[in-house]
Amino acid sequence: MALVQDISDWDKSLFDYSISMISLENIFLFEKHSNKISINKDKSKIYKTWSTDRRKSDLFWLSFSLGVECLFKAVLIKHKSIQLEKKNIDNRMSHLKIEANKSIYQALYSIIPTSRKNEFLSETLINNKIDYLYQIKTPTLDQIRTKYLSILKTLIFQ
User: Fold this and answer.
1) d(Cα 155, Cα 5) in Å, to the nearest integer?
2) How far is CA 30 from the centre of its chain?
3) What are phi and psi of 2, to 5 degrees?
4) Is the pLDDT of residue 122 over 80?
5) How much is the pLDDT for 73?
6) Average pLDDT over residues 32-44
7) How much is the mean pLDDT over the chain?
8) Count of alpha carbons within 13 angstroms of residue 130, beta-carbon side
9) Whole-model pTM?
10) Is it the case that residue 46 has pLDDT exceeding 80?
11) CB under 8 Å to 142, separation ≥6 — which residues?
12) Partners of 136 in beta bridges
């Protein structure tokens, strides 16, 4: 049984997720009224987080970089400035070896994206022949840096 997921507000979902990831350890703070991210002025909190536990520091940087990537994608999607492509993974289901997990994967891989309120996303899904949510390919942080940096600078500093 296929599920239909409306991704019309994907930019807002990515934005909210990015803010939660960036501000996870309260090192960076999000000011909602001005839409600004700033460094927490309490330097002892930052030092304590980074110096006492290496794993916690690594998790912070992982969360922060994921948050930045999602934030950039949210901005690019909102301003219709990103290329979303179709992943080429049609044979993925045939490679599953454990029968017990097949139903889980089939459920995950049967989500059909639609976009009722966002013309840009709707056209992207149709033009790229994207039938399932897992087929959506977004650029990585490095690809965003090399391909979309000038666009981001224009959008952020306008």
Assistant:
1) 28
2) 18
3) -85, 145
4) yes
5) 96
6) 81
7) 85
8) 27
9) 0.82
10) no
11) none
12) 86
Percentage helix, strand, coil for the chain under 3-state DSSP, each rounded to 5: 55, 15, 30
Radius of gyration of the chain (CA): 19
Task: Note the pLDDT of residue 146.
Answer: 92
Contact by Cβ (8 Å): 57, 65: no
The token pair at 133 is 């949510």
Q: In terms of DSSP bridges, do strands 136-137 and 111-114 run parallel, antiparallel, or are they unpaired?
A: unpaired
Contacts of 119 by beta carbon, 8 Å cutoff, 6+ apart? none
**DSSP per residue over 87-152, as a string?**
---TTGGGG---HHHHHHHHHHTTEEEE-SS-HHHHHHHHHTT--SGGGEE---HHHHHHHHHHHH
Q: Are 37 and 30 in contact (CB under 8 A)?
A: yes
Helix axes 141-156, 54-78, angle to 10 degrees: 60
The span from the CA of 49 to the CA of 130, in Å, is: 42
Bridge partners for 111 per DSSP: 3
For residue 69 the two structure tokens come to 């990537």
Q: Which residues of 39-77 are buried (b: 16+ CB within 10 A; e: fewer)?
A: eeeeeeebeebeeeeeeeeeebeebbebbbbbbbbbbbb
Q: Identify the pLDDT of residue 155.
A: 84
Q: Which residues are bridge partners to 31 per DSSP? A: 36
